[in-house]
């Protein structure tokens, strides 16, 4: 299998899952600053010209959630559980995260991490103010859900945890007020105990 990635937000969760599972992957780094994700050859694999993309024989997958589920299923692990009820709950968290939590925390990541890295100008204070308000609202929902729970879905780690937490390693850089949400902070501290989560990206 080949995994095309860059050391940015969405590939982080996929690389973490792949490392945790010790998946037999050849990592192919794309330099976004040089436009390596925009080449005709790469667009044949991923017409969105984004990362990550997984190639497994004739199968080509893009979108980080789908790739995480595929790797977990292929490895036969409980990260993608076998019971339908938990699978449906994971899909629920995928949807909520995409529409709400990572939508706003990712906006702050873009303003404070991506813009300086790729020389895209100063942070837009209006966008920051709106994203912070949304972050606090949605982080409160997540915090309440995590009270008395170790993981998002059931009693064991799942791909839902990797998806929803993907912006949290950048909390300081992205100025996410995690200290206001103790159960979110506790949950993320648990993920940080995993080497694969703390250091997901291979050397390139």
UniProtKB/TrEMBL annotation:
Residues 83-204 form the GST C-terminal domain. Pfam families: GST_C (PF00043), GST_N (PF02798). PROSITE patterns: GST_CTER, GST_NTER. Transmembrane segments: none annotated. Gene3D superfamilies: 1.20.1050.10, Glutaredoxin. Keywords: Transferase. It comes from Halomonas eurihalina. GO terms for molecular function: transferase activity. The lineage of its organism: Bacteria, Pseudomonadati, Pseudomonadota, Gammaproteobacteria, Oceanospirillales. Belongs to the GST superfamily. InterPro entries: Glutathione-S-Trfase_C-like (IPR010987), Glutathione-S-Trfase_C_sf (IPR036282), Glutathione_S-Trfase (IPR040079), Glutathione_S-Trfase_N (IPR004045), GST_C (IPR004046), Thioredoxin-like_sf (IPR036249). This is Glutathione S-transferase family protein. Residues 1-79 form the GST N-terminal domain.
């Amino acid at each position: 299998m080949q995994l095309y990635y860059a050391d940015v937000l969405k590939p982080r969760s996929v690389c973490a899952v792949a490392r945790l599972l010790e998946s037999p992957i050849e990592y192919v780094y794309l330099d976004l600053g040089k436009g390596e994700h925009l080449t005709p050859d790469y667009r044949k694999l991923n017409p969105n010209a984004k990362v990550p993309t997984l190639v497994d024989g004739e199968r080509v997958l893009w979108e980080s959630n789908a790739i995480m589920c595929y790797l977990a299923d292929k490895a036969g692990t409980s990260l993608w559980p076998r019971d339908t009820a938990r699978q449906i709950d994971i899909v629920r968290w995928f949807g909520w995260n995409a529409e709400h939590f990572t939508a706003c925390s990712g906006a702050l990541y873009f303003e404070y991490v991506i813009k300086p890295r790729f020389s895209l100008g100063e942070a837009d204070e209006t966008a920051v103010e709106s994203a912070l308000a949304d972050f606090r609202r949605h982080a409160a929902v997540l915090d309440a859900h995590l009270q008395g729970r170790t993981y998002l879905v059931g009693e064991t780690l799942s791909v839902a945890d990797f998806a929803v937490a993907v912006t949290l390693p950048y909390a300081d850089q992205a100025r996410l007020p995690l200290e206001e949400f103790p159960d979110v902070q506790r949950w993320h501290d648990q993920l940080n105990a995993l080497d694969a989560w703390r250091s997901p990206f291979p050397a390139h």
